[in-house]
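An example makes the point: we let one protein speak, the chain in one-letter code, the fold tokenised, and here it is:
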Amino acid sequence: MALEQGSIVEGVITGITNFGAFVELPGGQTGLVHISEVAAVYVKDINEFLKVNDKVKVKIISVDPKGKIGLSLKQANPSANPGGSFRGPRKPKFEPSFEDKLARFIKDSDERLSELKRHTDSKRGGRGNSRF
């Protein structure tokens, strides 16, 4: 089967790298889905969207003379719904709440401020610190 630019085909994820995912297409050819073509949202970690052996629908966006095939998941699935041919992002294992982040910030800030005061007071000779 000849692969033409613009056609949508089904394939299987065979490998994942930090810059994209390799997809085996019908006929045994392999193409690359660049990380920027995985989803309509910013993708920091491709493993949140894809895993090896996932079946996906991809659009062929380029075929160069050397045989490299560029693919796109987001163009093949414009709705990009989680019930589509690829999963949406996985839920993070633990995401601290705003209150937790704020409490951590205040604690760190207080510790830094008290350390700064202690350092400054010792240089000035204040608060009963003895000088050697």
